[in-house]
Amino acid sequence: MGQIKVEKNVGGIEGLCVIEPAVHGDARGYFMETYNQKDMEEAGLNMVFVQDNQSCSTKGVLRGLHFQKEFPQGKLVRVIKGSVFDVAVDLRSGSDTYGKWFGIELTEENKKQFYIPEGFAHGFLVLSDIAEFCYKCTDFYHPGDEGGLAWNDPEIGITWPQLQGEYPGSASAEGYTLEDGTPLNLSDKDQKWAVLKETFHFE
């Protein structure tokens, strides 16, 4: 192995990986390799990325939980500014961990990366004032192929840090805030996704 350390099957869920790069720092700042195909292959990860995306979000924004149905994407995600709580939910119908979730805090300080393979719903909650989020995808974005899962489905039971509120019977953000009073902020689309037992799953 070279410049990365890979922890595989995190949370007991096959395919999920936490990746930590080697950070070389001195008085001038730091340098790190954020991706190295050879190191990934040595770790048994042979995915091929075709698209890079970047987003910026404010505190209290929750994006997710998203997936593509016919053109599923594996995603290698990281934060370059701020902090988010990043979550993946297993939607593979043949998986022993179907419906199970795993979450990890990704920050500009810890520089951790999270790999979510095809077959998962993915989303994140912004914990800092601003968060800049980058991710590599194994397939292109296909309009019209989007799927989603209710971020607050009680059957899944994701424990979103700092979040307060009572489940209203839907994916609505109404009544939810962070501990400091920041309102939860979701898109209209993300407030309409169905719960696990009513949503799409991967064969």
TrEMBL record:
Site positions (Participates in a stacking interaction with the thymidine ring of dTDP-4-oxo-6-deoxyglucose): Y141
Domain of life, source organism: Bacteria
Catalytic residue positions: H66, Y135
GO CC term (a single one): cytosol
Catalytic activity: dTDP-4-dehydro-6-deoxy-alpha-D-glucose = dTDP-4-dehydro-beta-L-rhamnose
CDD domains xref list: cupin_RmlC (cd00438)
Protein name: dTDP-4-dehydrorhamnose 3,5-epimerase
UniProt source species: Mordavella massiliensis
